[in-house]
């Protein structure tokens, strides 16, 4: 199950097993049954309470994945950034879509060495 975007309110409710709505209840069941749960946490900046909630859900078995753009893939449009974040979430869930672009040596910029060597 992927929760995207996951507000800090939802993350806190999941961390404390407060099944007061369908989203939090479904996430609670995922954790209870040891199924994958990916939370795309959207808040920034974070304070200690946010970090503790993230730590708690991670200890319970969830995966917290902030929607950080992969600029090393050199996206041109905002659609490419969104697509990459969605594909990463699917990969974390274990259902990698076909033709997903991932980091390879071809993406790595050439190293520049002192002296031009």
UniProtKB/TrEMBL annotation:
InterPro entries: Flavin_trans-like, Flavoprotein, UbiX-like. The keyword rRNA-binding does not apply. GO terms for molecular function: prenyltransferase activity. Residues 1-89 form the Flavoprotein domain. Keywords: Flavoprotein, FMN, Prenyltransferase, Transferase. This is Flavoprotein domain-containing protein. The lineage of its organism: unclassified sequences, metagenomes, ecological metagenomes.
């Amino acid at each position: 199950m992927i929760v995207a975007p996951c507000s800090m309110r939802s993350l806190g409710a999941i961390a404390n097993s407060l099944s007061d709505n369908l989203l939090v209840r479904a996430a609670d069941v995922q954790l209870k049954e040891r199924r994958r749960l990916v939370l795309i946490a959207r808040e920034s900046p974070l304070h200690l309470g946010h970090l503790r909630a993230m730590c708690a859900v991670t200890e319970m078995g969830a995966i917290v994945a902030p929607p950080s753009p992969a600029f090393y893939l050199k996206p041109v449009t905002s659609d490419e950034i969104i697509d990459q974040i969605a594909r990463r979430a699917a990969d974390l869930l274990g259902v990698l879509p076909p033709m997903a672009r991932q980091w390879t040596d071809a993406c790595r910029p050439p190293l520049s060495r002192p002296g031009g060597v």
